[in-house]
Amino acid sequence: MSEDTEVSREPVVTPVRVVIGFCLVAPFVAMLWVGSYAKTDPDFIGIPFFYWYQMAWVLISTLLTVTAYKLWQRDQRDQRGRREGGAK
Fold first, then answer.
1. Could you tell me where the DSSP H helices lie in the chain?
2. What's the pTM value of the predicted model, to 2 decimals?
C-alpha cells in the first residue's frame, strides 16, 4: 500500500476540539477550587452560597456536557465527510 492511499490517524487539534475540552474540564476546575465558594454569603432564598453554587454547577455541567457531545458528533461527521470526499 502506498503512502498516498493511507489515511492519517494522527489526532488533530482543532478549535472545536479545544472548546469540547473546555466544556469537559470547566466543571472539574470549578468544583475542585473550593476556596472560591467556601463561604455562606450571598445566600439565595435562604440557602448559603456554598450549597447553591454546587447545585448550580450540576445544571451547568449538564449543559456543558451536552454541548460537548453535540460538538463532538458534528466534528466526527465533518471528519467523515472530509475523509470520504477526499477519497473520491
1. 15-32, 49-87
2. 0.77
Peptide bond just before 42 cis, omega within 30 deg: yes
Distance CA 60, CA 63 (A): 5
Report how far residue 66's alpha carbon sits from residue 88's, in angstroms, rounded to the nearest whole number.
33
Query: Could you give the CA distance from residue 36 to residue 51 in angstroms, rounded to a whole number?
Result: 13
SS3 44: strand
**Whole-number Å distance between alpha carbons of 75 and 69:** 10
Neighbours of 72 (CB within 10 A): 15
Task: Give the CA radius of gyration of the chain.
Answer: 20
pLDDT digits (tens, 9 = 90+) for 17-59: 999 999 999 999 999 999 988 888 898 899 999 999 999 999 9
Listed in sequence order, the residues at least 6 apart from 36 whose beta carbon sits closer than 8 Å to its beta carbon are: 30
